Amino acid sequence: MLGSLKNATITKGFVLAGLFNMTVLVFSRFFTNPVIPESDPVVMSNFGLVMIVVWGLAYISVAKNYHAVKWLVAVFAVEKLIYGIVWTKWILNHELSAVYAKDTMAGIFYTIYGLNDWVFFIFFSYVFLRLLLDKNS
């Protein structure tokens, strides 16, 4: 089961993860949308948004050589797990409709960012486990 994804598909997955992180530039209107940081000033401050872009660049940077950095792939999985948990807690404790009322782009961002993190947590975990179990890594 763990060997079912082809290397080229996994490479594309890393690039896709990075590109999804880059969408923060669109939703934040290149860090000028005040509603995203206002809605979660700790995690989604402008600094936090910049760091999401940096993480995206990191995913893309290892896309073709992910097999050589299996422990970094584990770090990526942990990072996505943390963001997924933070998003789930945020969704359970905030009114998403209030964010939409202030700004549709911010509302869409808060609707989807955690789903993205959960999906890529599963992806990075899968890749890490595959690398860990591969006798040639």
In terms of topology, how is this protein built?
Layout: H1 7-22, H2 24-27, H3 35-39, H4 46-61, H5 70-93, H6 96-102, H7 104-133
Helix pairs in contact: 1-4, 1-7, 5-7, 6-7
Features:
137 residues, 74% helix, single chain, mainly alpha
Number of domains: 1
What fraction strand? under 5%
* Helix/strand structural class: mainly alpha
H/E topology pattern? HHHHHHH
Describe the structure.
The protein is mainly α and 137 residues long. The chain has one domain. It has 7 helices and no strands. The chain has helices spanning 7-22, 24-27, 35-39, 46-61, 70-93, 96-102, 104-133. Helix 1 (7-22) runs antiparallel to helix 4 (46-61), helix 1 runs antiparallel to helix 7 and helix 6 crosses helix 7. The mean pLDDT is 95.
Summed up:
This protein is 74% helix and 0% strand.
